[in-house]
Amino acid sequence: MIKARITVTLKNGVLDPQGKAIEHALSGMGFGGVGAVRQGKVFDVELAESDKAKAEADLKAMCDKLLANTVIENYAVEIA
Amino acid sequence: MKSAVVLLPGLNRDRDMIAALTKISGKPPVTVWQTDTEIPDVDLIAIPGGFSFGDYLRCGAIAARMPVMRAVAEKAAKGVAVIGVCNGFQILVEAGLLPGALMRNTSLKFVCRQIKLEVTNANTMFTRRYQPGQIIRSPVAHHDGNYFADAETLARLEGEGQVVFRYAEGTNPNGSINDIAGIINEQGNVLGLMPHPENLIEAAHGGSDGRALFEGALGIAA
Questions:
Q1: Could you give the C-alpha distances from B60 to A11, A55, B11, B29, B93, in angstroms and in order?
Q2: pTM to 2 decimals?
Q3: Catalytic site residue B152?
């Protein structure tokens, strides 16, 4: 079994209103020096597969086909 | 004139769409369920608004991967008219039948009010009963209607007249790029828009500005 972590983040240049709101909230709470905050998603996926290369290819296909919207998002696959 | 309405769990404006199509076309639309792999021969397929699959992952993302959407794509490729309203627009975008993406409103608030739309392209099967530049009223009700496309896609949409509706007179409720409210595909038979024209089709709604859209798409005389 392979355990993987997929991180999905907004591409540069895509406006992130939620990240902006979090950024303002942090500053409002008194955390000094907060720069830009960008919000993303994390998926922990368990895969019944022993071949790491095959697992990585499958996970990337999952990202392209469902987990990320590649019009606005980037993704990174990390296998534990 | 025959129509079909796509049903998915979590949609909640399906009855409005069915009522509008029944009143305008004179007969009730057929309904197709998410697992259906075939859609009967119809002139118009409508994907209504709501919160399919609870808006999990991204609005419309899971609905777009259901078998019925493959059937919609096949019909669209054959030139059948397809309209997606609100969540239906998000589903069409996620399914790749329309370009771009719909993101969280810049206000971060759910907007539910009446806005004004400019008909920026009256030369489509959906807008042929309107005048170019005509301003019509329409309700909106959404949390994720902020249209985004990369610069290249945006230039193509604007250049080819694929921006069909724009929020008019400072009524952009969601921060959409270029005030885009509705776009059409290159072939001109798939329209997606965030506003709800089906909720303004008769006097009881307080106006019928949206009626001409369905009359145009169904080829019904006004």
A1: 20, 27, 10, 22, 8
A2: 0.94
A3: no
